[in-house]
Amino acid sequence: MPERAHLSVVILTKNEEARIARCLESVRWADEIVVVDGMSTDRTAEICRQFGARVIVHPFEGSFAQERNLGLEHAGGDWVLQIDADDVVTPEFREAVERMLIMRTPHAAFKFRRKSYLLGRFMRYGGWYHYLPNLVRRDAVRYEGLVHEHPVIRGTIGQLEVDIEHHPCEDLSEFLARHNRYTTLSVQELLDGRPPLSERQLCAYLIRRPWKIFWKSYIKKQGFREGMHGLVFALFFSMVEGIKWAKYWEQLQRRRQG
User: Fold this and answer.
1) C-alpha span between 207 and 175 (Å, rounded)
2) At 15, is the secondary structure helix, strand, or coil?
3) DSSP-derived pairing of the beta strands 129-137 and 121-122
């Protein structure tokens, strides 16, 4: 039998004591677990250490890519699986990864599906069941981006036909609170990365973008097939898009006044 490559799991956390144990239990089989914790004030770090994880305490500075890269720097495995505290690795996913670690693939990364749930329902339709290239060779990737961070991969990307589970929110209030934080970071990225929009352009964005998000989720990606879950999902994400551009307008006003 060829020697098996080593796997590290990197998990980003902050105040996740209610969910982190389930995530950690699902990856106990890995050779190493590295947790990048954004200075939690609850028992998150304590629980992680109880599972044998190495906890890197680092204040969140507005970039999830920075957190991912920090995890890569502290990981010792040949391969790194990047997940969040609200993810659960399935037995089928573990089996597929174990086979890959033995095969010694030439790929620099693998993409796999993230099976997301809204209020306990698996959202097959609507655009929340997609691929992530987050199983990577430690020395062949760096992450970029603030909110929707993505890996820049030096090499080819393979595909695993298995899922991990994603349980991002227990109720709609939590959903809104999370995306309120994300939109603030997205606005900062927009302001830093492009010239400011004119008021006419911004009006068009505020009107068109939310409707485009709703149409894409509910019609194009068939969110209507999820019943009320699909309708609420599309409405909430279109609303989040509107909030993002409203916050962008707010920040432009403050810059001009300041």
Assistant:
1) 23
2) coil
3) unpaired
pLDDT tens for residues 53-104? 999 999 988 889 999 999 999 999 999 999 999 999 999 999 999 999 998 8
User: Tokens for 50?
Assistant: 């109880």
Question: Are the C-beta atoms of 97 and 7 separated by less than 8 Å?
Answer: yes
CA distance 243 to 156: 37
Q: What is the pTM of this model?
A: 0.89
CB atoms within 10 A of CB 230: 24
- Residues 37-47 have pLDDT tens digits of 999 999 999 99
Backbone angles phi, psi at 120, to 5 degrees: 85, -5
CB atoms within 10 A of CB 64: 20
Rounded CA-CA distance 198/196 in Å is 7
Domain ranges of the chain: 7-166, 172-257
Of 233, 244, 235, nearest in space to 202 by CA: 244
What CATH number matches the domain at 7-166, 3.40.1360.10, 3.90.550.10, 3.30.10.20, 3.50.50.60?
3.90.550.10
